[in-house]
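User: hey, got a sec? need DUF421 domain-containing protein folded
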Amino acid sequence: MNTVLKAAAAYIIVLFVIRLIGRRTASQQAPIDMVVLFLFGGLSVSAVLGDDRSFVGAMSALFTVGLMHVAVSWLKLRSVWFERIVDGTPIVVFRDGRWNETAMRRLRMQQADIRTAARQEKLDDLDKVAVAIVERDGTVSILEKE
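Assistant: Yep! Here you go:
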């Protein structure tokens, strides 16, 4: 039972820390982001299993994390408030030629990240961009001026 409780606690803590770190998709991850994710996994396994190297202990932890994931998904479907806490909300970082510096700092994003997203949409000049939004998954959506 101890392993199950530690696995559930680890799930919640890792979810919280990942939300605290910020938004990045796999395609946008820098090497340092990968290091952090790998360390999270290794440290979590050590914390959950400790000295218990048994098959039952490992499967209990695995099953608990799986059930926690299902529970969080279920709660997100039933509560907009909970979904916003877990997944966040889209954030406008650029609109009509003006940067939202506060949001950019909070997201730890640079103007270069938005310019890159604009270029990927074949927009080489920000004068052609109406709005740039950092989506919940960390991708940047660019809406072109009409």
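Quick note: The two ends are 59 Å apart (CA to CA). Let me know if you need anything else on DUF421 domain-containing protein.
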